[in-house]
Amino acid sequence: MITFADVAGVDEAKEELEEIVEFLRNPDRYIRLGARPPRGVLLVGLPGTGKTLLAKAVAGEAEVPFISCSASEFVELYVGMGASRVRDLFARAKKEAPSIIFIDEIDAVAKSRDGKFRIVSNDEREQTLNQLLTEMDGFDSNSAVIVLGATNRSDVLDPALRRPGRFDRVVMVETPDRTGREAILKVHVSKKELPLGEDIDLGNIAAMTTGFTGADLANLVNEAALLAGRQNKVIVEKIDFIQAVERSIAGIEKKTAKLKGSEKAVVARHEAGHAVVGTAVANLLLGQPRVEKLSILPRSGGALGFTYTPPTNEDRYLLFVDELRGRLVTLLGGRAAEEVVYSGRVSTGALDDIRRATDMAYKAVAEYGLNQTIGPVSLATLSGGGIDESGGSIPWGRDQGHLVDLVQGEVKTLLQSALDVALCVVRANPTVLEGLGAHLEEKEKVEGEELQEWLKLVVAPAELTFFVKGKQESIIPLQTVPVFNELSVVAQVYYQLGRRSTLSQTSRCQRIQKQASAHRLVVDKSLSSHIKPDEPS
Ligand SMILES: Nc1ncnc2c1ncn2[C@@H]1O[C@H](COP(=O)(O)OP(=O)(O)OP(=O)(O)O)[C@@H](O)[C@H]1O
Ligand SMILES: [Zn+2]
């Protein structure tokens, strides 16, 4: 039987699953109080991080039956079989309750779109998924069955799967850090009862195996034993482990994005940059979440490192304009750190940050109306053609090049100034950046008290104001930009053009001209060309 003692290096995941174990041990205690039992838990982590092992350990700890299957089997079955397999699975679990259903590779049925299983009709996959959802929704409140699903791609899952009462909990199964790897090595060495040479320090082996998952480490121990055995040794020595590490690294590097020595240094500074800037922003704005964890271990989704900031406690529906700028600045903190530490020799590591920042900046300007130059105009609606009086939508179909250019210009300015602010923060904190960066490079993961000790030292520069223009000589605080200006009239023109109205083009044209002159502005030539007064009304 497998228990939590067999799973090492994933303490947080174990802690989160403890509650599930507790429930399965004494379901009646909760059910008689009318508490809604937990239903589905998604285990997310790279292949080989121990998701299956953890699920088995939950069953072992709770001493309940473990009913497992792989979702990829469902879709490979004959038409109609997937759904019926799911039905059987749940029927069996209910009969044996309290029990655990484990569905490996759940993305195989729950992926929004997938090339790999295209041979199976989409209907088949959908039927299977629907059956799964139906079964989960159909649990009565006193059935003690927990469904654990495993995936290495939570980002591709159908959102329907994550609704309350379905897989509404997510447990991240992280790639182990150095301490975690040492613990995993210990588990496997003692499980095999491997006699170790006196020269072996598992801590050293752990230090050599950045990026190895639990499965890689289990293999490593086995490989070292094989090497020793081949030479007829009675104990496994350090040299056997070192050779085994060398062999596995070659294989593992092909599989996962493992950072090389110098890359580790860069990614560590990058993440430290996010943390430093994020902390400065949180110090300036009230109620902002604090950075809790930094890591440079490979993760599912391909990120090279990450900075974890928990969501704020209160439910938030609105993001205020200063918070949005704060987020932009924090997102660009990684790039800023690289620029400062490596004197402008930046890397491609900020790809995802830049994507997210651009998306956020675009929305701010073109959808949320937070940019005073563009004004409260939704470009998305404009391009959709707008809404007529009866609520129907009208195809737009005219060239909006001009407005698009303006929006792009504003987005670029917003991002550039966010980067300038991030650079300013990073430059003000060289000690934390380098100290925390080096520490992270060495430890691979920094969190808790240790991290907060570093972040306490972060200073936010006094002159940290967000400017519309990045250039020193044209600093304009955002508040001073007049609301009515040329661009908002431009937007009006487009709006007027897109409306289906009983007004003729001629009178529309006149209206626009009137509006423009009211603001002492001249309508741009390229816009005037859209207004053809000859069209019959
Ligand atoms: N955290 C761990 N502690 C100890 N051993 C581990 C750990 N993770 C993995 N292993 C070893 O690797 C083996 C394979 O791991 P497991 O199948 O649980 O990984 P997985 O995350 O489910 O992978 P996959 O996504 O490929 O199914 C385990 O049986 C165990 O021997
Ligand atoms: Zn980043």
UniProtKB/TrEMBL annotation:
PROSITE patterns: AAA. It is found in: Plastid, Chloroplast thylakoid membrane. Its cofactor is Zn(2+). Transmembrane segments: none annotated. Keywords: ATP-binding, Chloroplast, Hydrolase, Membrane, Metal-binding, Metalloprotease, Nucleotide-binding, Plastid, Protease, Thylakoid, Transit peptide, Transmembrane, Transmembrane helix, Zinc. GO terms for molecular function: ATP binding; ATP hydrolysis activity; ATP-dependent peptidase activity; metal ion binding; metalloendopeptidase activity. Residues 37-177 form the AAA+ ATPase domain. It comes from the Eukaryota. GO terms for cellular component: chloroplast thylakoid membrane. One of its GO terms (biological process) is proteolysis. It is a multi-pass membrane protein. In the C-terminal section; belongs to the peptidase M41 family. Belongs to the AAA ATPase family. Probable ATP-dependent zinc metallopeptidase. This is ATP-dependent zinc metalloprotease FTSH, chloroplastic. It comes from Nyssa sinensis.
